[in-house]
Backbone:
């Protein structure tokens, strides 16, 4: 089965040109004009690699990558930009971007990067299933707490002794984001983007997030050690203040 690539760029000419180059190399290709469309596409389709423009109206490339890392962690990402900066490059590296290319990139440069990205993806997936492969670090799915509480986020389940509660997909994503980043304060807007997959204004985000947080807190009432470590930061967002074993 041929690899599938998603091109994300708000410039029609650049989007079409890159799509044509990739199709000529035999890849399956689709393209979308903005970050919101990219996030929606990745949520419902298997994408092996994305080529994403940095600056786009609405969600920019880095915001798209944040969501994709949560919803489709095996998708490799190449970031394209005509506005390079050290700060952006550092952010891209922190988000596990496979490559960071300057526009206008040569077709040979793009194709070489795509090939390396797909090779890296294949090696990582084979590494997880191969009996003699090198161990591959994966995001934790189980979080253990000192009072015996277990958060099994692959099953979206919280358990302590005989008490068990199950989370919805959105509740599970919210809890994972917080537990994987102890001490990091997430704004309401960041959490809506990472958990729900769409961008909102700073004014709208608290209203969107509040019902989800309320439902999660209600389900965690039987697990006070965990619930009490998720704190609201007044006027900003939320933070997980505890540690797991």
Residues:
């Amino acid at each position: 089965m041929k690899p599938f690539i998603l091109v994300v760029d708000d410039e029609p000419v650049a989007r079409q040109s890159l799509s044509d180059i990739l199709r000529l190399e035999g890849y399956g290709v689709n393209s979308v004009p903005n970050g919101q469309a990219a996030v929606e596409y990745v949520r419902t389709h298997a994408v092996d690699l994305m080529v994403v423009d940095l600056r786009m109206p609405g969600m920019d490339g880095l915001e798209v990558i944040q969501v994709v890392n949560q919803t489709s962690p095996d998708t490799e990402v190449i970031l394209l930009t005509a506005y390079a900066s050290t700060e952006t490059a550092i952010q891209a590296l922190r988000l596990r971007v496979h490559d960071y290319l300057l526009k206008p990139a040569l077709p040979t440069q793009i194709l070489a990067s795509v090939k390396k990205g797909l090779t890296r993806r294949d090696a990582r997936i084979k590494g997880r299933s191969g009996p003699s492969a090198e161990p591959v670090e994966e995001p934790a799915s189980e979080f253990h707490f000192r009072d015996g509480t277990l958060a099994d986020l692959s099953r979206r389940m919280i358990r302590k002794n005989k008490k068990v509660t199950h989370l919805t997909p959105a509740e599970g994503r919210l809890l994972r984001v917080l537990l994987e980043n102890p001490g990091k304060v997430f704004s309401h807007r960041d959490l809506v983007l990472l958990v729900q997959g769409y961008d909102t204004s700073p004014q709208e985000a608290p209203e969107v997030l509040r019902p989800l947080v309320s439902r999660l807190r209600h389900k965690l009432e039987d697990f006070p050690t965990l619930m009490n470590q998720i704190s609201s930061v007044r006027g900003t967002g939320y933070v997980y203040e505890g540690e797991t074993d």
User: Anything to note?
Assistant: The chain has two domains: 4-129, 142-240. Residues 107-129 form the longest helix (23 residues). The two ends are 42 Å apart (CA to CA). Residues 131-138 have pLDDT under 50 and may be disordered.
